[in-house]
Design goal:
alpha/beta; TIM Barrel; eight-stranded parallel beta barrel; 8 strands; about 15% strand; globular; binds cytidine-5'-monophosphate
Length: about 240
């Protein structure tokens, strides 16, 4: 099954070990073009693991959700901007100066890596949001953070599929939308604001990020195939 062309599925490579990730990729790398590497595998394998994964011909999305003072974020970006990553994430909670600094660093290094701003984690419920952001609704924060991302020149945002209709009203319509919190069917885990792949694409996701529903499946290729079917139905207007 080889069908990577124009298939905007990003596999969240959230395995326990580098070996497990390599084994999974050996089996499925021909069925997708994008993988997301997060804190755990980056801690275990660092830049050499990113490079090894890119050598497979995969587009790598490094999801570190950088959030620190502007100088610290800018210098953290320097060694990552010219190794050929497809994209990496910053947390918009870091604020305007941090995001502007990141955009400037990208420009100075003439990097082609996309900078994506994480808006509100898909694991938040309105209640868990209110607990740490008293007085500001999840929706308002989402819209303001998306708008800020557009204003400072970020390339895209990461948001819940349920947030997509709001993004259309935020002034960030032109940004790439990367959407985690996607489930083939309802399940009980830490993701609270979820939908199906088909609905996410229909609502305007440019890319979807899916981890456990693929990684933990007895047959990961079958799940990828189901996601592709939903994607094609939306793309071809079936
Ligand atoms: O296993 P699951 O499909 O829930 O994986 C989703 C991935 O997307 C995880 O790696 C998680 O870190 C990431 N993510 C998210 N919500 C965000 C940003 C990234 O779930 N707002």
């Amino acid at each position: 099954m080889i069908f990577t062309e124009d298939f905007p599925l990003i596999l969240a490579l959230d395995t326990s070990t580098l070996e497990e990730a390599e084994g999974l990729l050996d089996n499925i790398e021909n069925s997708l073009s994008y993988v997301k590497i997060g804190h755990r595998l980056y801690a275990l394998g660092g830049i050499p693991f990113l490079e090894k994964t890119m050598k497979r011909g995969l587009n790598v999305f490094l999801d570190l959700k950088l959030h620190d003072i502007p100088n610290t974020v800018s210098i953290a970006l320097e060694p990552l901007m010219n190794i050929g990553l497809w994209s990496l994430t910053l947390h918009t909670a870091g604020g305007r100066e941090m995001l502007e600094g990141a955009v400037q660093t990208k420009g100075r290094l003439r990097s082609g890596t996309l900078l994506l701003g994480v808006t509100v984690l898909t694991s938040h419920s309105p209640e868990s949001w209110e607990e740490v952001n008293p007085g500001c609704s999840l929706q308002r924060s989402l819209v303001e953070r998306a708008r800020l991302s557009a204003e400072v020149g970020m390339d895209g945002i990461v948001c819940s599929p349920l947030d997509l209709p709001l993004i259309n009203l935020s002034g960030a319509e032109g940004l790439i939308r990367v959407v985690p919190g996607v489930r083939i069917q309802e399940g009980k885990d830490d993701q609270k604001r979820v939908t199906t792949p088909g609905k996410a694409f229909l609502d305007g996701a440019d890319y979807i990020v899916v981890g456990r529903p693929i990684i933990k499946a007895p047959d990961p290729l079958l799940v990828i195939q189901k996601i592709r079917e939903q994607y094609l139905e939306v793309r071809d207007g079936i």
